[in-house]
Amino acid sequence: MKAIEIKDLTFTYPASQTPTLNHLYLEVEQGDFLAIVGNNGCGKSTFCKCLNGLIPHFIDGDFSGEVHVGGLDTRTSDVGTLATQVGYVYQDFENQIVRPTVLDDASYACLNYAMPDYLERGRAALKMVGLSTREKDYIWQLSGGQTHLLALAGAISLRPDILILDEPIAQLDPQHADEVYEILKTLNEKYGKTIIVIEHHTEYIANYCHHVMLMKEGGVAWKLPVDEALRHVDELQESHIFPPQVTQAAKRMQQAGTLAKTAKLPTTILQGMSTFQNCRYQPSFTRPTLKPETEKPVVTFKDMCVCYRSFKGEDRVVLDHLNLTIHKGDKIALVGSNGAGKSTLMKLMVGLVKPTSGTMFLNGQDVTGQRTKQLSPYVSLVYQNPEDMFIKDSIRRDIAYAMQVRQVTDHAKRTDELLSQFSLETLADRDGRLLSGGQMRKASLAIGIALNPPILLLDEPTANLDIATRHDILRTLKAIAATTDTVMIATHDMQLVCEWASRIVVLDDGKVIADGTRDDIFGNPTLLETVGIRPPEIFSMAQALDHQALLYTVEEFTSHFKEVGS
Amino acid sequence: MKWKQKLSENILDKLSIDFLKNQVLKNAYGNTDTLIAKLDPRILIAWYLFFGIVPWFVNDVAFLLTCFLLVMITTWLAHVAGLVMFIFVLGVFSQTGYLLIVSLFFGGNASTILPLLILTLKVTTCSLASITVFSGLDPDRLSNGLMWYGCPERLSFSIAYAYRILPMLMEEFQNVLLSYRLRGNPPDHSGWMGKIRYLIYQVRIIMQAFYPLILNTAKRSRTTVEALEMRGYRYAASNRSVKKMKLSALKVTHLDSVFLALSLLWMVGGSLLMTWI
């Protein structure tokens, strides 16, 4: 029996003219690990909601065709029965959790469906995702990754055979992302679950999934075994999916004639080892050296300490005697695991957090403990969640707000300029919350630089974005960096770090433990190991081929590796 | 002057959203190990009904004083958060307490003070009993207790869910307020007029911040509604056996009997003793 069988599925939302899902056919084998890819708006999420019966039972619309899940017809089975066949984890998983304690939430669905052994089921689910030790904890004591695992546990407590996860790692740092995929792998291999993920991180697809399904305009373009699927480089890129960096590099080298046309495109580093085995590293002496720190200091921290009061137990030390000098013109990437103090450091610079002890200098003056009002003309902060930046009912008014209240002359003109700089003109009168992820991020960046601050701080500017949008934002960031003196970005996105930053500061436990160029940081394996930084895949590929090679982008790789004899 | 400035800054710090969040969480879940939290919620609700209703119909000072002393002890046993106590004191004082003090100052005698004292005692007893029960029990146990008494499932779910999203809402609210702080241009707050202007500005910002807060929350709730459907919330609401399972965790223990017996003993003994005095 197939796990999923879909025949001629068409679905149209009530307000829409065109169908979101259009004559879709699909069969999924039991025990498959399937990745669904496709550009924004191709109907991925709608498709998944057809599998768990939310469509047609809970969400209205025009539904035709047949969907069989685990042998059940979704039209005749209710959502409750289907929930025992299909578990679903949302992209905004934290809103899926409704109970205050961990075990309570994990067993909630089982209790609702009147299963007498609901607590055991909850415990068993927690064990599968590795949260057994936390069952008595309150949900707000969990980290982002653990919260995701709890949402997963809540779904598997009903023992469904099929699990669907909508962008499971979009909000997680690399370690937590690995953790989630390792658990999915165990669920797939050890417990025989069929797993379906909507995913655009092709590196993870290559390492964990068995099949890939490309969706296009509401239908299935193809469903192929993972290696074969990822080698359709051009077709994927048309749908704004970026294949793994090693695949891209090999493809480009073939086009440039530096790699044999007959070579199989690799999808993982392991495969790359054999594809690139005859390639040799050719060091160049013209590698751009990064700007030395000759500029004058703009911000200096001396022995900074910040403690937070906690609601039970001891106070938490977030910054611990931190010393750091930021120079004019620096493009700093601030990296480190969750809870290392990155956000706190940024909030400190805009006066939103008061230091427990220590001094902060701005342009040579002691500004320790000054209010946000005094600091905001010099430092601007754009935070991680763009929704929280929208305080007015249109992005035009949001961008204008800071200038209006300061009576900046011709603020209307400047607002228009910003709108066009970020290509937001057509969206100017819409509420920021209703825009897509990338548009929201751009709007929040425009808000952040409205006052033309000499120092700009960005907290995770590429989090939660699909790869195509990420490229767009990266271009925008490069444009901003050209006009703003000093920019600091806190991020987990190492591709962003490698392509953008001139200086990398590594935080660990509230201290600066490393500070330097990308060669200083990524060329130091012990350091990467201690703080759990994962370099971009292409860097690891180059390292695996030759220890001398410190290459950070696909372009650098393809111009420094050549096949011998070609 | 310096210490004065320190003090006012300190008070402003205390009133931050962080502090409020902390206090709410502490109030709801921070004291699960107290004596009151260990009692059966049904017993505690019955106990509360007595101290919440009976004092209104009795005018005997001795009895009221005994009640008052008892609920004071239970409030102390429940380890109620500081903020709640502060609001309580403020509330009682603004209702009747100030009248008591004023009448004392303006030559009131026993005949004016006594009715006021009785009223104040009634109000405080009733409030303290509520505080003991509603803040001493964690919301889950409270809602299970209410469900046993036949309150609709929706009410008890709402109580538990409200506590689950409260920290999220407050964080969201805090972030929106931070946006105003980052981009706004608050008036200068030196001098008395400045302080007043600053206060008015802050109140206005807090009011304006509700618009984005509501919209952000509405956006979140789309997922929650669908998730609740999948997780069988509607199914459970119409199923009697689910209710039975939820309530099977409730058990009356010796501790409850001892608590009730002691309360009774205290009331009888205390009233007699007071009357005799």
β-sheet strand percentage of chain B: under 5%
| Total DSSP helices of chain B | 14
Please give the largest β-sheet of chain B.
none
Name the beta content range of chain A: 15-25%
Can you tell me the residue ranges of chain A where pLDDT is under 50 for at least 5 consecutive residues?
none
Would you tell me the overall average pLDDT of chain A? 89
Main beta sheet of chain A: 6 strands, mixed
The percentage helix of chain B is over 70%
How large is the radius of gyration of chain A? 25 Å
Topology, number of strands of chain B: 0
In helices, the fraction of residues of chain A equals: 25-40%
Element order of chain B: H for helix, E for strand: HHHHHHHHHHHHHH
- Based on CA atoms alone, the radius of gyration of chain B comes out at 23 Å
Total count of helical runs of at least 4 residues of chain A: 24
Multimeric organization? heterodimer
The coarse overall form of chain B would be flat
Which features would summarize this protein structure in a list?
A: 566 residues; alpha/beta; 6-stranded mixed sheet; 22 strands; B: mainly alpha; 83% helix
Give a brief rundown of this model.
The complex is a heterodimer of chains A (566) and B (277). By secondary structure, chain A is α/β, with parallel strands linked by helices.
Question: What features would you describe in this structure?
Answer:
Chain B: Its main location: membrane. Chain B: InterPro entries: ABC/ECF_trnsptr_transmembrane. Chain B: Keywords: Membrane, Transmembrane, Transmembrane helix. Chain B: It is found in: Membrane. The complex is a heterodimer of chains A (566) and B (277). Chain A is α/β, with parallel strands linked by helices and 566 residues long. Chain A is 36% helix and 23% strand. In chain A, helix 8 (174-189) links the parallel strand 7 (162-166) and strand 8. Chain A starts with a strand and ends with a strand. By secondary structure, chain B is an all-alpha fold. Chain B folds into two domains: 1-26 and 139-238, no CATH class; 31-137 and 251-277, no CATH class. In chain B, 83% of the residues lie in helices and 0% in strands. Chain B has helices spanning 2-14, 17-29, 35-38, 41-57, 61-77, 82-105, 110-136, 139-148, 153-183, 191-208, 210-230, 233-237, 240-247, 254-276. In chain B, helix 4 (41-57) runs antiparallel to helix 7 (110-136). Chain B is flat. The chains are: A alpha/beta (566), B mainly alpha (277). At the A-B interface, helix 3, helix 5 and helix 16 of A face helix 2, helix 9, helix 11, helix 12 and helix 13 of B.
